[in-house]
Amino acid sequence: MDDFLTDFQSDNFFMQQALREAQKALRATEVPIGAVIVRGDEIIARGWNQVETLKDATAHAEMIALTAAQEVYGDWRLEGCTLYVTKEPCPMCAGAIVHCRPDRVVYGCRDPKGGAAGGWINLLESNPPLNHRCEVVPGVMEEECGGIIRGFFREARARKAEARLRGGGADPEGDRLN
Ligand SMILES: [Zn+2]
After folding, report:
1. What angle do CA 152, 157, 161 make, to 5 degrees?
2. What is the pTM of this model?
3. Other Cβ atoms within 10 Å of 142 Cβ, number
4. For residue 1, how far is its CA from the centre of ligand 1 (angstroms)?
5. What's the average pLDDT block by block, 10 residues per block, for the chain (178 residues)?
6. Which of 9, 83, 104, 123 is most solvent-facing, going by the fewest CB within 10 Å?
7. In angstroms, what is the span from residue 49 Cα to ligand 1's centroid?
């Protein structure tokens, strides 16, 4: 029970750190997803989604954190490490995770449409042709992790609607709204 409590608390602590990375993405008007990689009780790498910033569709939070962790660790085998990410990894990231071999993957909100850690498919746990399996812990701080993403898309839709309204300024209907 004590072990369970400790693990539970530390998973929450490190997910909080991943959420901080997601906040960085939010400030850069990126889809707010963040990740950290932990070895023992130390964060060795951090990453936030930078697809727009870097104009790179592969610049997901997990990919950036994995690359940074391999550099710090001095090895591509991330044995003894746990990856924390605020959203369930996509198939690209799950593939990269299997190659890097961390022990555990802890994620926040589930992605039933495109998640590759059990949401849509499961590349991390049930992947017979692949040579590594990770222990997966889903749904840690799910509300917070999902809420920040939902908020981002809500605002993006509002911005779009506002732009449409302003763009309509030339027609009489649009003028009447001002
Ligand atoms: Zn991804």
Report:
1. 150
2. 0.88
3. 16
4. 34
5. 60 97 97 97 96 97 98 95 98 96 97 96 85 93 98 95 80 42
6. 9
7. 9
